[in-house]
Amino acid sequence: MSREAPSSRVIVVSNIHEISDTEIARAGRNGVMFVGGFQHPPNVDAVEFYAEHIWPLFRKTCPNVPTYIIGSGMPDRLRRFGEEHGLDMIGFVEDLMPYYDTCALSIAPLRYGAGVKGKVNQALSFGLPVVGTPVALEGMGLIDREHVLMAGEPESFALAMAEAYSDGALWSQLSRNGRASLDGRFTSEVARAALHCALKDVVDS
Asked: In sequence order, what E strands does the chain have?
């Protein structure tokens, strides 16, 4: 936009999240969660990819850990497919907080799509560690093994999930650093400053 309209003031306002200021503990948490609206084809593909190629590998290492698939517009075909593979196909929920409060891991096995992913930022804002593909984690300044765990292939993705799930020290590091990664990028204060800059001629007049 800056190239096409060089006289314009171009300001980016990305996703906006409130960052929880309460330290969360690994103890007592169980389960993996995926969140996504299923009117969006990349989310359908991600669940199918996970069910067929990642979940069987993860389940060998962590056999008693459920995966909850949550989101609106879940097609009946996808629900049946997931249930046949042993996933908990939850569908739409009014409130995600019970899952953010009790699950131990959020996953984003996206194979295509674009832009900053709200599902990733939201999990990080609650201090929930995320394992995602490079596509899922793009554009957020996230560093592998510092803020998140990044993996593109089924084997490496399943291994990353198992490591984050079982290594308490790593889990706490990802929880703390993942939440901190949003500060200065995806908060209401950042959005407010960007909007003020974009509209300053109007605001100051």
From this structure: 32-35, 67-70, 88-91, 105-108, 130-132, 149-150
Q: Which residues are bridge partners to 148 per DSSP?
A: 144
CATH tag, 32-203: 3.40.50.2000
Cβ pair 71, 36 in contact under 8 A: yes
Q: Which two tokens stand for residue 64?
A: 């008693």
CB 105 within 8 A of CB 128: yes
pLDDT digit string, tens, across residues 174-183:
999 988 877 7
Contact criterion met (CB below 8 Å) for 158 and 109:
no
158 φ/ψ angles, rounded to the nearest 5 degrees:
-65, -40
* Distance separating alpha carbons of residues 158 and 167, to the nearest angstrom: 14
**Domain ranges within the chain, ordered by starting residue:** 32-203
Tell me the CA distances in angstroms from 125 to 166, 168, 172, one per residue in order. Answer: 21, 19, 14
pLDDT in tens, 30-67: 999 999 999 999 999 999 999 999 999 999 999 999 99
Task: Annotate 179-203 with DSSP letters as a single string.
Answer: HHTTTTTSSHHHHHHHHHHHTHHHH
Q: What is the model's pTM?
A: 0.85
Burial of 118 (C-beta count, 10 Å sphere; 0-12/13-18/19+): middle
Computed on alpha carbons and rounded to an integer, the radius of gyration of the chain in Å comes to 18
